[in-house]
Design goal:
The termini are far apart. This protein is 77% helix and 0% strand. It contains 2 helices and no strands. It is mainly α.
Length: 120
């Protein structure tokens, strides 16, 4: 053993480094699993919100006299209302996702800190 224990530390550091490198993928896997779980929970919450909104809006519009059964005209109205609402939601969602992807691509490929940009 050398002065201040420096002589034998290289072998113990390599053991610590290998332990950290094996632990890092495990932490990364846990982080990815957590991100996946959060994404699924957000998607579930959004879907539930969509269903609640459709039910509320279409019921208000189509069921003018609540009773124990729906009339055929109320059923047809609810069916058309839900279809239109979901179609509109789908269009908005696709448009929004395309816009986000486009903005992400623009940011990814834009040159950072280009001095010539000031003169354009």
């Amino acid at each position: 053993m050398s002065f201040f224990g420096r002589g034998s530390s290289s072998s113990s550091n390599s053991g610590t480094t290998s332990a950290l490198s094996t632990a890092k993928p495990d932490v990364q896997a846990q982080a990815n699993a957590l991100k996946q779980a959060i994404s699924q929970q957000i998607a579930t919450t959004n879907a539930q919100g969509l269903i609640d909104a459709v039910n509320h809006k279409c019921f208000q519009k189509c069921v003018t006299k609540p009773s124990d059964k729906l009339s055929s005209s109320e059923e047809g109205c609810l069916d058309r209302c839900m279809q239109r609402y979901l179609e509109a939601y789908d269009i908005i969602n696709r448009t929004y996702m395309a816009r986000v992807a486009k903005e992400r691509d623009v940011q990814r490929f834009a040159p950072a800190g280009n001095a010539d940009d000031e003169f354009l």
